[in-house]
Amino acid sequence: MTEIDTETTNEPRGPERPVAAIATAPGPAGIAVVRVSGAGATAVADKLCPGATVPPSAQPAGSFRLRRLQDPATGAFLDEALVLVFRAPHSYTGEDAVELQVHGGRAAPRRVLAALLAAGAEPAGPGEFSRRAFLNGRLPLDRAEAVMDLVAAQSDRAARAAAEQLAGALGRRTDAAYDALLALCADVEATLDFDEEDAPGLLPPDRFAARVDAVRADLAALAATFREGRLLREGALVVLSGPPNAGKSTLFNVLLGADRAIVDAEPGTTRDSIEEGLVLGGVPIRLSDTAGLRDGETAVEREGIARARALAAGADLELRLVPPGSEAPLAAGPRTILVFSKCDLPGAAAPDAIPPGAIRASARTGEGLDALRAAILARLGAEPAGAGAQGATVNARHLALLQTALAALDNAREAYLECGEEAAAPAAARLREAAEALGAITGRTYTEDLLDTVFGRFCVGK
């Protein structure tokens, strides 16, 4: 099996051609940032500042100057900008870089970017600045992914999780496991480097198993954070369903804290689904109000009902409302919470008459709404705020690699305990397989295809 060579894969690639992109979101804003990075970045910026007594290439590292930017081809005035200069390796990318803080909006930054490209820079691809930061040893792969998680965070809780990963919470745990496996592998392989009569004895099976089990327990705990991480990153779809006039639209509005859905006593008022976002216990939720489930009277209503059923079937969680006088389903699945709505009205089900796990609630009085919110979070699998993974929640890529590592560790353990004197070679191979999977989480081992996959998800300019 190929050796895991962290020295080679972690070496900076050295100077790169300059690339440029707008690093801030489009639209009205006080400022926008246009970034150019790579060998010759300051020379490119010089061409936009022909009248400067101290051009960007002569500015000290970490300094900024207010400059008039001109089109290098026509000399036309572009904008006034704050020009910040960074020198390798002390920049985000680890290269020479210049950031131009221009006026916000769409036109001004685009004009400045076009001028940089005309001056010799090339357009940056998706995630190219972060990719260069990784390749130049400035940012491990898991922390680069955390940058995008932080940018995309929809709640304070998601932002905290991303910030903790950006600070190295996940990398520290996977790096510790990686180092532990390489140390164990070295001890096992020691028996392969000697003649038979001089070879040291095999590591006792119980000691080998104990060391494998210690690493495995931490990796399994990390893998178990995937559901929490997915909820924080992607949110969950929660669908309100039930018969007409069950109180779906009223509950929808109350949970949102806004009058978003039309409420009326006439059955069939909601003809199509309405979706809005909210944050519940730090978890982003997409809440959907749907058409009342009945035999539709018109083609339009029947289509809305069909869509409601399909939406509920694909939801992370269905809140199925049961109003007074309606027959409750005999059983609800793991993705369904029965909500006995309008519990303030005569004829509502008594507390001891509803099934276990069901909620009595009134959108009008607020009774049962706190219990409903707690039940939603619990059924989605969200940990209480402040609990859980202590700064490390894995994404789908991490989970797949952790699963590969766990399977390899199980195979290594089995081989070592069953193969006797022949155990060293197969066990060592499986240990290295596990370590290589862990190394791919932080980028201690990587391929160009892996980098294309990871950074291809990034926006241009990050």
What would the average pLDDT be, to the nearest integer? 85
- Structural class of the helix and strand makeup? alpha/beta
CATH level-four homologous superfamily name of the largest domain: P-loop containing nucleotide triphosphate hydrolases
Radius of gyration: 29 Å
Number of separate domains: 3
CATH topology of the largest domain: Rossmann fold
How is the main sheet built? 6 strands, mixed
Number of helices: 15
- What pattern of helices and strands is seen along the backbone? HEEHEEEHEHHHHHHEHEEHEEEHHHH
| Spatial order of strands in the largest sheet | 3-4-5-2-1-6
> In percent terms, what proportion of residues is strand?
5-15%
Amount of helix: 40-55%
Describe the structure using short key phrases.
single chain; Gyrase A, domain 2; Four Helix Bundle (Hemerythrin (Met), subunit A); 462 residues; 3 domains; six-stranded mixed β-sheet; alpha/beta; Rossmann fold; 15 helices; 12 strands
Give an overview in words.
By secondary structure, the protein is α/β, with parallel strands linked by helices. It has three domains: about 5-140, Probable tRNA modification gtpase trme, domain 1 (Gyrase A, domain 2), CATH 3.30.1360; about 145-225 and about 395-440, Four Helix Bundle (Hemerythrin (Met), subunit A) (Up-down Bundle), CATH 1.20.120; about 230-380, Rossmann fold (3-Layer(aba) Sandwich), CATH 3.40.50. It has 15 helices and twelve strands. It has a six-stranded mixed sheet with strand order 3-4-5-2-1-6. A six-stranded mixed sheet has the order 8-9-7-10-11-12, with helices on both faces. Strand 3 and strand 4 form a beta hairpin. The radius of gyration is 29 Å and the shape is flat. The two termini are about 35 Å apart. About 40% of the residues are buried.
